[in-house]
Amino acid sequence: MGTREGAIARALRHFDGGHFRDHLAGLVAIPSTSQEPEHAPDVRRYLDQAIQPWLKRLGFDVEIFDNPVAGHGPILLAERLEKDAPKTALTYGHGDTVRGLDDQWRAGLSPWRLTQEGDHWYGRGSADNKGQHALNLCALEAVLAERGGALGFNLKLVLETSEERGSTGLRGFVAEQADRLAADVLIASDGPRVMP
């Protein structure tokens, strides 16, 4: 069985090798803004083509549900259940972003292209919320690799795509899926934080 230090070392190699940046750049490149109706197909593509395959590679069963409120983005529910696991964690994040506002970005920057300038990375969603769930999934990959494919607990993930429009439909979805969302702990991963 692997160690905490081993998992951290794996994650650092992944980051230092540019793999995390590449993952995040791929996510940022999808204009998954929920605030512009013409991007509804991109919001769906974000879940279908970027997140779902990644989660399946990590051993999750994944379902994408239509939002219970018409006109709002879909919601992904993923479960990774291990036999006889004593505890279950539930995580939350969102894959939608605010408007791109392309014309308001300064020269050399674009909302749908991850750009590094020194220690700063720019791109829509890199701080809210694509960066956080990309980081979480990369860390999960490192832990699974270090522990031979086992976590020792169950993990469920909810990723919505209407957070930037008030999380419309999320309350209804949670009520509909209450049994499946039962967990011992909730870890919400959303947005930048000034303080821990």
Secondary-structure blueprint:
Blueprint: H1 4-16, H2 19-28, H3 40-57, E1 61-65, E2 75-80, E3 88-94, E4 115-117, E5 120-122, H4 130-146, E6 154-160, H5 170-176, E7 185-188
Parallel strand pairs: 3-6, 3-7
Antiparallel strand pairs: 1-2, 2-6, 4-5
Helix pairs in contact: 1-4, 2-4
What is the rounded Rg? 17 Å
For the largest sheet, list the strands in their spatial order: 1-2-6-3-7
> Which ranges are low-confidence, i.e. pLDDT below 50, for 5 or more consecutive residues?
none
Question: Helix and strand string, N-terminal first?
Answer: HHHEEEEEHEHE
Biggest sheet architecture = 5 strands, mixed
Measured by DSSP, the beta-strand proportion falls in 15-25%
Mean pLDDT score, rounded?
Answer: 95
Principal-axes shape call: flat
Specify the oligomeric state. single chain
Structure annotation, total helices: 5
In helices, the fraction of residues equals 25-40%
Q: Please give the alpha-carbon distance between the first and last residues.
A: 31 Å
Question: Would you give an account of this structure?
Answer:
The protein is an alpha/beta fold and 196 residues long. Helices cover 33% and strands 18% of the residues. It is built from 5 helices and 7 strands. The chain has helices at residues 4-16, 19-28, 40-57, 130-146, 170-176, and strands at residues 61-65, 75-80, 88-94, 115-117, 120-122, 154-160, 185-188. The strands form 2 sheets. It has a 5-stranded mixed β-sheet with strand order 1-2-6-3-7, covered by helices on one side. Strand 4 and strand 5 (120-122) form a beta hairpin. Helix 1 (4-16) crosses helix 4 (130-146) and helix 2 packs antiparallel against helix 4 (130-146). The longest helix has 18 residues, at 40-57. It is flat, with a radius of gyration of 17 Å.
